[in-house]
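Quick note —
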Amino acid sequence: MDGSVGLGASVPPDPWSIPLDRIDPSQAELYTSGMQYAYFRRLRQEDPVHYCAESQFGPYWSITTFNDIMAVDSNHAVFSSSPTIVIGDMPEGEDPPMFIAMDPPRHDVQRRAVTPAVAPARLADLEAVIRRNACEILDGLPLNETFNWVERVSKELTTRMLAVLFDVPFEDRHLLPYWSDVTTTTETVGIAVDMEERQRVLMECLEYFTRMWRAKADKPPTFDFISLFAHNPQTRGMVDNPIELLGNLMLLIVGGNDTTRNSISGGVLALNQYPDEYAKLRANPSLIPNMTPEIIRWQTPLAHMRRNALSDFELHGKTIRKGDKVVMWYVSGNRDETVIERPDDFIIDRPRSRHHLSFGFGIHRCMGNRVAEMQLRVLWEEIMARFRHVEVVGEPVRVLSNFVQGYEDLPVRIAA
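Predicted structure written out below.
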């Protein structure tokens, strides 16, 4: 697919051969080549609060260490999420508002409205659904035959979960990952869709859920995202603000799809790259709950989040000016050797494996983090109950993106 490349793609230059002030970690090609880790290692060591004056996204600051990212992410009084949480700016009027790209109190109202869909009280019911789906998917996989793990497992499991959270009919579930991929596409990254086509597809998404909203508003409330929005007194009017509704749909679809889907794929890849860890898992499947957050840290499915400075702020002797773009590179913080021991390695019995940045911090911490972890845990419990080895038999094809660290193809084979 256009916009996706394998590990054999052209490799960017060694970061130590570039003048420090010219280092630009926003280049999507870094993430398909695996070179992003070397670039961020140099920045953490030599310039942890790094200003890039020239990039395709304009000037911006890079925050690259674990503790600095946590400090910025937790300080919404200075670092605003509005108008967007990605490094690139959409054309005027084409960046729909969504609650992750809002500050309090508006953010709090909208987030609170849909949180019951993934609240702790629902986890037991959702686990039963996840396990049933995982069993059906795994039992349908071919043996002794190469297939794409992304399509057959990662995408299918997360799509089914999204369909539950949105109450989308099973036969329409395929629309959800497509809408997610289109949402994260820009003129320079993502799947092969031009901006005119992207707008048309997103309008189809909006029309679909607007019809669903109006139908649910006339029925008793249920624990899906659309019903919760439609019945909450503070958000029920959102249906009359279609751009804001679209923004929140985009947020919830991407949040429920890309992160878990790519962690599912990343876990298979990690265990194949670290066969001793796979052997450790076979010997002791009870390590799965601890392995789950380690997968999410090692993969870091969303590479960055952006903030915008509301006032001047000094960090390590650098002055971030009011109005400056500030990018928190979670992919760098999760490899910070001063906080995480052997951070580049995948270690399934790592102590404090939940101590990572993949879900963010502060008021914007991922509200569905427990559901994401549960999908990974349940899937690996069912994998280990069936298969001794899911073997990666070819190069993964990675999405061309500086935001989503994802896969389009992961060729695997399961031995009978």
